[in-house]
Specification:
The protein has three domains: 51 residues, no CATH class; 51 residues, no CATH class; 88 residues, no CATH class. 39% of the residues lie in helices and 11% in strands. It contains nine helices and four strands, in the order αααβαβαββαααα. It has a two-stranded parallel ribbon. It has a two-stranded antiparallel ribbon with strand order 3-4. Helix 8 crosses helix 9. 10% of the residues are buried. GO terms for molecular function: ABC-type transporter activity.
């Protein structure tokens, strides 16, 4: 620590307080002065990639090799980052624990390359119940979603006793979603472009300069 401070003074480096904030959010403050890589291997950690003007992050299976507690801590940090900086994070996880699943705002559920559901996590069970499938109280939502779109597992969640359970393919689930109130609401939201005259923060600017000369 003392040696790092000395070198910073020699080089005229003024520590950026913003870096300390990001390290706190990412849980890296305890290893802030740990060197990674060497002269031959330029290693960049995930935390370094996140710091900066990044507005969109796409993450695939970041929980590989991690226990559920560590995965939860990482996702919780990323959730804070998304909410504080207004960033968009798309993350694919394999069978997340219930507490980790509850951290997400929205979910994109896919089967055989088709979008089966896209919307708020709080409405996903309602959609599948409308399709005839109910998640039991002892079942985690993430596990239920993985099994209800599987041909060999979906029958156990069928709750309409007056009718026999028929296999519903990914195409049929996708069609049901598009015809549902959730799918129609999503289409309606996507069909309305953000308006620049109304100063919407996500509107696209088509002029060369954002400010008049």
């Amino acid at each position: 620590m003392i040696e790092v401070s000395r070198r910073e003074k020699q080089l005229g480096i003024v520590p950026n307080p913003g870096a300390d904030i990001y390290m706190k959010i990412l849980g890296l403050d305890i290893c802030a002065y740990t060197l990674i890589g060497d002269a031959m291997r330029r290693v960049i950690s995930g935390g370094k990639l996140i710091v900066g003007p990044t507005k969109s992050l796409f993450m695939d299976e970041i929980s590989n090799g991690l226990d559920s507690s560590t995965t939860y801590q990482i996702v919780a940090c990323l959730q804070q980052l998304a909410h504080i900086t207004d960033a968009t994070i798309v993350m694919a996880l394999l069978q997340p624990a219930p507490e980790t699943f509850d951290l997400f705002d929205d979910i994109i559920l896919m089967a055989e390359g088709k979008i089966v559901y896209h919307g708020s996590c709080s409405h996903v069970l309602e959609f599948f119940e409308d399709c005839g499938f109910r998640c039991s109280e002892r079942k985690g939502v993430a596990d239920f979603l993985q099994e209800v779109i599987s041909k060999k597992d979906l029958a156990q969640y069928w709750h309409q006793t007056k009718q026999s359970c028929n296999y519903i393919s990914a195409d049929m689930f996708s069609k049901k979603f598009k015809e549902s109130s959730f799918g129609k609401k999503l289409d309606e939201e996507l069909s309305k472009p953000f308006s620049k005259p109304h100063s919407h923060k996500n509107a696209i600017s088509f002029s060369k300069y954002s400010l008049s000369k």
